[in-house]
Amino acid sequence: xTTTPILAASGLTKRYGRVTALDRCxxxxxxxxxxxxxxxxxxxKSTLIKALSGAVVADEGTVQLDGxxxxxxxxxxAREAGIETVYQTLAMSPALSIADxxxxxxxxxxxxxxxSVFRMLDRxxxxxxxxxxxxxxxxxxxxxINQAVETLSGGQRQGVAVARAAAFGSKVIIxxxxxxxxxxxxxxxxxxxxQDVRARxxxxxxxxxxxxxxxxxxxxxxxxxxxRRLAVIDPKDYTMSDAVAFMTGAKDAPVAA
Length: 257
Hints:
Oligomer: single chain
CATH topology of the domain at 7-91 and 168-248: Rossmann fold
Radius of gyration: 19 Å
Strand content: 15-25%
CATH class of the domain at 7-91 and 168-248: Alpha Beta
Strand order of the largest sheet: 6-7-8-3-9-10
Number of strands: 10
Number of helices: 9
Helix content: 25-40%
Largest sheet: 6 strands, mixed
Structural class: alpha/beta
Shape: globular
Low-confidence stretches: none
Mean pLDDT: 89
Distance between the termini: 17 Å
């Protein structure tokens, strides 16, 4: 694995009044890996992810994408740079179709005057591309690309959200608790989906409280505590109990080399 991170942060600090959510935090995501981010509630995981994805602007520190300094002032800017984030809430419109949700905010217009002047959508092209993306990820248990998202199961909705991220996230995909509200069978499908996306060469940041899932799919684990990176561990070298002990402070974490 190359030693140059595709996404890195150094010295990220974010304060909310007297509360320091990020305290000189460092971060590295390597190309082609699944990096899990774990930490107790209130450790600052969400603020870190928001700072990397443009939802929050850090007070101090730098972020680099492909070795170049970037400063995102909104999630749209991060998205345009190739960083897609799937939040726990999924950010979907339940009444709209699968195809409409996949292209929300980046709808395809018809060619010529119909699209440029009358702003007419190219629905056949959007439906075809959405169907192809779902096929690529093995999600065509969904038969009708025009069915409303509210008719899908929890696992299918999560699958559509991940497929949308994989379709447009050219550099990095961030997944925030993707299996939190799912049953065993649907969680299995989402974990398989995560590994399929990684197999296509897209690195993934996985935020999760589910230690069995983390240890199953992660190549490395970023342990976050008190607003900063405590350690990065290899799941093959430590147990789930070790990881929980590190993030709660019950055991001293290994010192980075």
